[in-house]
Amino acid sequence: MKQEDDKLRNLLQDVFNDYEVTPEPEDWNRVAESLNKAREHRRFLWAVWSAAATILLLLALYTGNEYVSNKSSIATTTNKTKTQPNTQKQFTAVKSQSGNNVSTKQFPNEKKILVKSVQEKADSKNIKTEKVNSDRIIAANISKHLADNNQQTNNQQKVAPSKELQVTNESSLTKTKADKVIDINPTLASNDKKKEVASEKAKEQLAQEQLNALKENRETKKTKSDRSFILSGLALGNSSGFQPSTSSDQAMMSSPSNYSQAGSNINYLNPVNIYDLTASTSAPRISSIYQNMERTFKPPITIALTATFSMGNKLSLESGLQYTNLKSDGQVTIKSANDVQSITYNTYNVNESLNYIGIPIFINYTLTGTKHLKTFISSGFTFEKGIRANYKAISIDNIPGALQLSSHNSIKGLQESFTGGIGLSYTFIPHFELYFQPSVSYYFKTNNTNVTIYSTNPWLINLRSGIRYNFK
Amino acid sequence: MDYTKILEGCLKGNLKAQRELYECFAGKMLGVCMRYASNREEAKDMLHDGFIKVFTKLDSFSGTGPLEAWVRRIMVNTALEQLRKNDILHDTIDYDGTTDHLEANVDIISDLTRNELMQIIAEMPPGYRTVFNLFAIEGYSHQEISELLQISEGTSKSQYSRARSWLQSKVTVKYNIQ
Lengths: 472, 178
Fold this sequence. Notes:
The complex is a heterodimer. Chain A is α+β, with helices and mostly antiparallel strands.
């Protein structure tokens, strides 16, 4: 039986091995037509994929630029520290959009103390201490003016001007809508307690006005997406290079009585000390201040080198190494002061750059594919470790000799994320694929102190792309 | 024959190269399809679909074996797919009863011409014909056939045995051989 089977098989295989049936010409035409259709279909699919990828890319960029723009809370210092309430109030000021600074100054003016509240950009004619150089000139003029006034008022001027009362010259006052005049009862000069009460009231009133102005300013900024900030009292930090920590000016500001005493002794006529805002030691401070600031995030950029391991049934495991760069832009305003109580604000454009190294672990499923092009869906986790955060700060006020500040710090914590997406890969040489994968990612919370696009917007649309090696 | 240049052209989607490859194998492959199909039109459909697969899957040809064997395998698979799609296989393959077997006389069959054999095979019930083609002509084992047709190995053996009996009876009747 077996032999008969083998004999029959051999016979039939010999007979049919080279058996041919001549096809008709139209048989090839049918095949050619189908091949052309398949080619057009592939082109159509490619066009659809390109369009979809472009749309998703633009969407990702759009969301990166618009949706992801963080509006961090703005630090206000009115009630921030009880140990230095007066100085905090005093330091409150507004940096207008145009970069013009409005500073507070004071000098006695007989029975009236003119209170100048916070002003907007339109008040550009008022006295400004925008730059350190101009500060020196203004401070010198004020000193001279103070000396003249003191001589004229003799002992009648017993009400020491409160440090919180911000005074401007009359010419600027008439041009300012927000200017207010507060009459102080001269009898207060003979009563220290009453004087202090009045001074406190005046301070509170001024502080309230300034707060209102700040709130208005903040609302305006929110609606206009303005990048500038209100920053007050930030120079009070102990580690700040901007801090006039030992200045007599700050000592005066800490207490009205101290100020009064200082005023009577005309201590503020001492040579003006300007605290250099461009000191290189200020750089580390920039990064910590920046964490509380409003900023605009740029879309994350991730470059990956990965390998895929086939698991059969169109499934593959992907892992490797990836580098991610997060950038953001914002501004910080730093306060400085000098011995004549001229408060100066300097605004910096800050560029933040965070660098991460990560390990993605993904499961991919191939949907369709040819030799070179494949479509796939993918999902998995990524574990990223922050390597370094770099900061560069450039003054927007063009201070002569101002240096670009730069600093860096470490990034704490492990950033974990889950990603899912659909992708397209192109095999450009055997085993090596270039892939593009529009994805949606969720970034889990970490103990990282840096405010990042991940912490403010955990859900992100992104475009994963890179080169990966295919183990078959 | 060296198919390297033709293959390169085909991989680039060159229609001329594809035609050359088609012309190299179309005759033999139509012969293969004719053995599985009930008529020429059905065989031409199989040939068409088979060559489309050849051109679209050419990148998976490893080059380790003969190209003709690879193309033939694709044609056989396409033919089976077509038969399965048309539900032709089940009618006869599902039948697994026992019958009296007539063993085919190899000497008698060897006296038949190729065209006579082709005609007899074409007249076979599709189930018999398919297993007979796969086992006796293509050289597949019953285990391989069982996997290809998703039937048991026993069914494959049984079908082949019936096909041989059917062939013997057909030859006997047709050519009046005792």
